[in-house]
Design a protein that fits this description.
By secondary structure, this protein is of the alpha/beta class. 47% of the residues lie in helices and 11% in strands. The chain contains ten helices and six strands. It has a six-stranded parallel β-sheet with strand order 3-2-1-4-5-6, sandwiched between helices. The longest helix is centred in the middle third of the chain and has 18 residues.
């Protein structure tokens, strides 16, 4: 196994098959706010960021109060009407396999409440030694989540491998001076992922386990 001490996973699009659901919920929130909803490509670009930063990028003409209101609509709708999170095929087995060799952690643009709901939905609470959300640390691509997780676990950022499906994950890792790999199961295309240097681009979590063992 490759000599990392902790694997830091993104959640949406990396562990949870939730990209299409997020796109739909964002579009619904804009309609309820009386705005023309952004297109799918624009929304996929901002998945992984904290909610405020994501909405600011989607609609830079909105003021802070309007962003807060759209965010409130989105969070309320998502919390009360979203179906339970579902992990990608084989993800649960892969996590159990990797847990035998590494500490596992999560760094996500979700809120704490929504991540905790996702962990409960997927029965994965016990698998992760540390989790960080965008309402606890600066949003990706800032390195704060990586630093905070490493601080808690007593490891150096270079001993932490970041795994994500967006350039925001990869840039967070680069800003923390941590190694990273991408998976092509989520929001960003392979062409987008290639714009940020990282160790490998994989087609899913099963390939991650094989890559770590190579």
């Amino acid at each position: 196994m490759k000599p990392y001490r902790v694997l830091i996973f993104d959640w949406d699009g990396t562990l949870a098959d939730s990209t299409a659901q997020i796109v739909s919920r964002v579009q619904t929130s804009f309609r309820e706010f009386g705005r023309t909803p952004p297109g799918e490509a624009a929304i996929r670009d901002i998945i992984g960021l904290g909610l405020h930063d994501a909405l600011r990028r989607l609609c830079p003409d909105l003021n802070d109060a309007q962003i807060a209101e759209v965010g409130r609509v989105y969070q309320t709708d998502r919390f009360h009407h979203s179906p339970p999170d579902i992990l990608f095929d084989r993800a649960y087995d892969v996590l159990h396999r990797l847990q035998q060799h590494y500490w596992l952690a999560v760094a996500t643009g979700r809120s704490r409440r929504k991540l905790d709901t996702g962990l409960a939905d997927t029965n994965t609470q016990s698998l992760f030694f540390a989790t960080r959300t965008a309402d606890e640390c600066a949003s990706k691509p800032q390195p704060d989540m990586v630093f905070s997780i490493c601080n808690e676990l007593g490891v150096h950022p270079r001993e932490a491998l970041v795994i994500g499906d967006t350039t925001h994950d990869l840039q967070m890792a680069a800003n923390a001076r941590s190694p990273a790999v991408s998976v092509t199961t989520g929001a960003h295309t392979p062409a987008q992922l290639q714009t940020v240097p990282h160790l490998a681009m994989l087609d899913g979590l099963a390939s991650l386990a094989d890559w770590l063992e190579a």
